[in-house]
Write a structure and sequence with these properties.
It is built from three helices and eleven strands; from the N terminus they run αβββββββαβββαβ. The protein has 220 residues and is of the alpha+beta class. The strands form two sheets. Strands 3, 5, 6, 7, 9 and 11 form a six-stranded mixed β-sheet that branches. The chain has a five-stranded antiparallel β-sheet with strand order 2-1-4-10-8. Strand 5 and strand 6 form a beta hairpin. The longest helix has 43 residues.
């Protein structure tokens, strides 16, 4: 029978093996420490960068010195040819740290008994009145400017409001005595008269103007 020969490490080989283990463990610890420090440095840099670039963003609206939301109601109690212009001023206050761009859109119109709603401007919780005609804000704007003898104008001194400043938005409803279309003037004048007789306590025309505010984007 053959005898089995077990291999025994010499004292020198044992020392070499021990040194290799210690060196490997040392390198592993150094690697972990370096990676941990690098990750900490990365997170700290990103966090500092994000914090440094956060700027206040806040815009508010006032009508007759009272804070209002972005839906501005326009109520015309008595509409007739040659009426005095109905004017409403909206103060837009930008007390943030970023410039703001302001534009407007018509959210709804009620002309006597006809109601039009711009569905693209409806917010969560808004309801559509029974019998209302749904359309878009662009169509409503075109309608109020082209289909009636009266019109609505919105003017501002600047479409961009600087940080920590304010602008005034002027909304004007006009129905001139001679709009250039006598037939349309007469037709809507008679409709207004009939509506007043049937609804003496109701407003003839109601609109809602939605103000849209966005952070100003710098052009490169």
């Amino acid at each position: 029978m053959r005898k089995r020969h077990s291999k025994k490490l010499t004292r020198k080989q044992k020392r070499i093996k021990t040194r290799v283990k210690i060196r490997t463990l040392f390198l592993l610890v150094i690697t972990l420490m370096f990676n941990t420090y690098a990750w900490f440095l990365y997170v700290s840099t990103v966090s500092s960068s994000l914090t440094a670039h956060v700027e206040a963003w806040h815009v508010k609206f006032k009508v007759d010195d009272e804070l209002v939301n972005r839906d501005i109601p326009i109520v015309i109690e008595h509409a007739y040819p040659g009426m005095t212009d109905e004017v409403k001023s909206v103060t837009i206050i930008n007390d943030g740290q970023k410039d703001a761009d302001v534009r407007f859109a018509i959210k709804s119109i009620r002309i006597f008994d006809e109601i039009y709603i711009a569905t693209d401007l409806l917010s969560t919780g808004d309801s559509i009145p029974q019998g209302a005609i749904t359309t878009t804000s662009e169509n409503l704007n075109n309608k109020i400017q082209n289909d009636y003898p009266f019109y609505l104008s919105v003017e501002s001194s600047d479409d961009t409001i600087g940080a920590n400043s304010e602008e005034t938005l002027t909304i004007t409803f006009t129905w001139q005595y001679e709009s250039g279309d006598d037939e349309t003037d007469t037709s809507y004048g008679e409709m207004a008269y009939s509506y007043y007789n049937a609804n003496p306590t109701s407003q003839a025309i109601e609109m809602v103007i939605k103000l849209i505010v966005e952070q100003h984007k710098e052009t490169v």
